[in-house]
Amino acid sequence: MIETTKKLEADGLSKDLIHKLILRSLFLLYLEDRGATDDNLYQQINPKATCYFDILYNVKDTYHLYRKLETHFNGNVFTIKEDEMELVTKEQLAVIRKCFISGNEDTAQVDLFSEWRIFDFSIIQIELLSEIYERFFIRV
To answer: Looking at residues 49-73, what average pLDDT do you find?
Structure first.
């Protein structure tokens, strides 16, 4: 995640926005892996989407999901600034996607199994996720 942050910062995103994108992704993947997302949550946004990673291919779809969840969870994780969607590109979302699927984008490794993920959030306790959230937002 550190390398992802550096890459996105070099690409012009603020640390605040990068941290929000990573935290939103952590939270969504946690919910998804725990089976806490509605089966058709993603299809409501994109009929071909079956998971969060499918949504990340498109900036408009990604922010549609974030707005939907901002309404559902009256908290800080999904609070979206007015101009935020215009600041994020499809390529930057691909970096986020890559971070959670196979790690650092700049490795020389070939992705043999492009949809296999290096993280399984179903085994992580909510307290750890809360700790990550708090530490990230203390720095932001």
So the answer is: 93
